[in-house]
Amino acid sequence: MRHSDPATGPAGTTTPAAAPPDLNLLRTFLAVHRSGSFTAAAQLLGLSQPTVTTQMRALERQTGRELFERLPRGVAPTAVADELAARVAAPLDALAAAAGHDPTGRTRPGPVHLAGPAELLSTRALPALSGLVADGVRLRVGPGLTDPLLEELRAGRHDLVIATSRPRGRGLSAVPLADEEFVLVAAPALAGRLRPALAAEGPGALHEAPLISYAEDLPIVRRYWRHVFGRRLTCRAAVSVPDLRAVVAMVAAGSGFSVLPRYLCAAELDSGALVPLEEPEDAPINTAYLVHRPGAFDNPHVPLVRDHLLHAAREW
Question: Which top CATH class is 180-285?
Answer without folding.
Answer: alpha beta
